Amino acid sequence: MGDDEDARVKCASQIAAASSEWGFFQIVNHGVNPDLIKQLRKEQIELFKTPFSRKSSCGLLNNSYRWGSPSATTPDNFSWSEAFHIPLIKISDQSCYGEFTSLREVLIGYAAAMQKLAKLLAEVLIKNLGQKLGDFEETIKCDETTCFLRLNRYPACPLSAEIFGLVPHTDSDFLTILNQDEVGGLQLIKDSKWVAVKPNKDALIVNIGDLFQAWSNNLYKSVEHKVMANPNVERFSVAYFLCPSYESLIKSCKQPSLYTNFTFAEYRAKVQEDARLFGRKFGLSRFLRS
User: Fold this and answer.
1) 187 close to 196: Cβ distance less than 8 angstroms
2) pLDDT tens-digit profile of 257-284?
3) Global confidence as pTM
4) How many domains is the chain partitioned into structurally?
């Protein structure tokens, strides 16, 4: 984000404005080594080449392999994708990697870079709310014991151009940092219309999660987004999720608050209950004050 103070102030203002208007923004000059990103993509592709029977049963990456939407009952609920959703605290564990020993060093470096960048972005957004990062961190714990990396693969889908690679959703975290390839397919809602996010090989994509929307009392927007499957080409991405501890209390920083106070554990439980009972997430609307 640069060292010049005027440039930093301008950049911080643009981040806050985009978080309020779009809930999404792209950042360049982010400080993450491009060679590290390239190496991770290479390792990621090799990992997903592993036969399904091994990926789904051998304990790779903390046994975190996921595919599709096994509980889906209609095409609207199905995601044409596979992923490893890994707690950061497990990334250094050698027992998680099997023969993929070179992946471990790359993931350790990438996770550290994401943690550093996420803290910088959170500080910008917290300061814009008139708070200090230290005060925020006293209430909210976000570290390697609470955050996640998700390695995604979206196979080419010959069935229909309308199939989702990832169904429409909002993220249940504070913010997400996405490194995507140049295939495209990510879309977000703006003014009730779907807008495609054009890939930029030099940029990382950041989006606001539900928790920052609640914390900011709706100043920042957690917007619905999706990935459309590609009929001809597979797509890869890596997402980092800035999540708090389950006991962290989420409360709006402005009064009167639009939301009741809730812990992250309570939020996760309600999201999972709604998904089980209704097949979809209702999210923050469950915690609006009446």
Assistant:
1) yes
2) 999 999 999 999 999 999 888 878 999 9
3) 0.95
4) 1
